[in-house]
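Quick one:
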Amino acid sequence: MSKPADTARLITGASTVVCLVGLWIVGSKAGWINPQAFPTPEQFWAAAKQLTVGEGFADGRVHQHVLQSVKLILLGFFAATAIGVPLGLWMGWSRKAEALVNPIFLLIRPIPALAWIPLAIVWLGLGDAAKVMILWFAAFVPSVINSFTGVRNIDRPIIEASRVFGIKGWSLVKDVIVPGALPSIFTGLRLSLQGCLTALVAAELLGALLGIGKVLYQAGLDIYPAMILAGMVSVALVGFGLTAVLDWVERRSMPWRTAH
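Output:
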């Protein structure tokens, strides 16, 4: 995406946030919002201050919770995509590989990541390994499907022309297959990252000592709407930051799509 388009998107997003915050402030002052159900700006600010620079919440301050959650997300994301992307490329390129792997994949694909929680506890206990396993399943399926689709969407004449010019084996994969599938691969990476963020809260219910999921869980038990909102904002900011990094990697990996 071009820089003017990025700027326009940023301005639009910022304007939307400002409008929503303005409505929230006005609604709270006018009494349209029940503070028992949804916090006022003052309540949210007090909770955010407690979480960031105060005594903390759920056994930690925001930076401790965020670092723990980001660590789990990255471990699950990279472990899943390091297997899922090559597997998807292999299945997309080889009919034999598809026939061998696809039946097993079709059995795993419909199972939600959260359905693995009981087995994760039985196999790995309540430590970080069990949480990473759940995030792994959340990220694995999208990376496989989109990598597979990316290969299958490459025009066959391009591959045939490459072979005519003597491009074979690893060179064909490196110079033709992977670049051709990259747009779809990055779509899969985005969905995988989103899957990790979605499964994060549930994963951190497994005896977590720290994490944004623990903040949300404890705030729910305490019936503390302002802290729930603070936790949700933390998740949103983490997601925004990780997505921005992925956007940067995508632009660096496919400069031909951003050159104008």
